[in-house]
Design goal:
Elements lengths: L2 H6 L15 H25 L6 E6 L7 E4 L1 H4 L4 E6 H6 L5 H10 L6 E8 L2 E8 L6
Parallel strand pairs: 1-4
Antiparallel strand pairs: 1-3, 2-3, 4-5
């Protein structure tokens, strides 16, 4: 599933005639744009310090037990918190199985240009790649 599909996804209709609820992923895109410089800085630091060549950021609205908190939604008055992790931690915790590591690396985008984000929502979780600076055409 790519970023466009995730952002255009809408919650299942609850059957009530109320106005359609906006997907939480719309607010995620807004927060990722707001956080982009800080996330890029952390990603570069992870690579330069030799921690990992494959930083992964976790976007969530609840508690998750992977990575280290770098941007707290409560402190920043945003909708999403971001934690920093690595491919190695994802493999160690079994989120990415050893068998899936190579296929994952084949689709992993250049970390200097894209943040790899593991989006956690109540319905599940998925990876997206978000460009640090969207071109303004």
């Amino acid at each position: 599933m790519d970023r466009e599909e995730l952002l255009n996804a809408t919650p299942e209709d609850s059957g009530s005639p109320q106005k359609k609820q906006e997907s939480p992923l719309v607010s995620l895109e807004k927060d990722l744009a707001f956080y982009a410089d800080a996330i890029k800085e952390v990603g570069i630091e992870i690579m330069v310090e030799g921690i990992s060549a494959h930083p992964i950021f976790i976007a969530h609205q609840h508690q998750v037990s992977i990575g280290e908190m770098i941007l707290n939604k409560e402190e920043l008055n945003t909708d999403w918190s971001i934690q920093a992790s690595t491919l190695e931690e994802f493999v160690e915790k079994g989120i990415i199985t050893k068998e899936k590591k190579e296929p994952f690396l084949k689709v992993y985008k250049r970390p200097e240009d894209y943040m790899c984000v593991f989006v956690v929502v109540p319905e599940g979780a998925n990876f997206i790649y978000y460009p640090y600076h969207k071109s303004k055409k």
